[in-house]
Amino acid sequence: MLFYIVSLILATSVLIVAVLIFVSEDLSAFKNKYASRTFELPILSPNGQILNTVDDLEEELSYLKEKLDEKQNEIEKSKLKVCTASDSLKKLGETSDEVKKYYLKLKNDIIKSEKECLDLQDQIQLYKEKQKKLRQEVKDNVKYYSNILSNIDLKSIEMQDYEIVQ
To answer: Quick check: pTM over 0.85?
Structure first.
């Protein structure tokens, strides 16, 4: 008798879990199908200008890529200096405090430059994503307004004494 009750409870719980899984997938599909259109905040360049067009984004993207190249070159130069300094330190054996400070400063500069490079790469990726979204939004708007214009009945407008501008 106890075995029968336990198996009945387990079967009921499995059925409830299956129904919940099925319903949750339908609910998420319903939410995705009827999701409202979201608007993004404007994109600002580092100097505070609002980037409205794809061309503005491309200019900012090329600027950021140039800065990234400069920072990467700076990192390479700094790494070369650090390698040179570390070789010199190994050869000298006993080094002065001044050389150690310079070596630590170079090391900190490299870390800072690498962080700036990562930040620039993140910004570039963000601008690329925003650029892609803007292009898609422009396509959607052109399609939407073209559809509206194609559905206008010109004869009914002429009967209402409106002037048609073409």
So the answer is: no
- Transcribe 37-79 into DSSP letters: PP-PPPEE-TTS-EE-SHHHHHHHHHHHHHHHHHHHHHHHHHH
Comparing 83-87, 111-115, 132-136, 139-143, the range with the smallest average pLDDT is 83-87
Phi and psi torsions of 60, nearest 5°? -65, -40
Cα–Cα distance, 113 to 67 (Å, whole number) = 11
Calpha distance 94→69 (Å, rounded): 37
Three-state DSSP state, 35: coil
CA atoms within 13 A on the CB side of 8: 5
State how far the alpha carbon of 18 is from the alpha carbons of 4, 10, 12, 140, in Å: 21, 12, 10, 39
* Structure token digits, residue 2: 């106890």
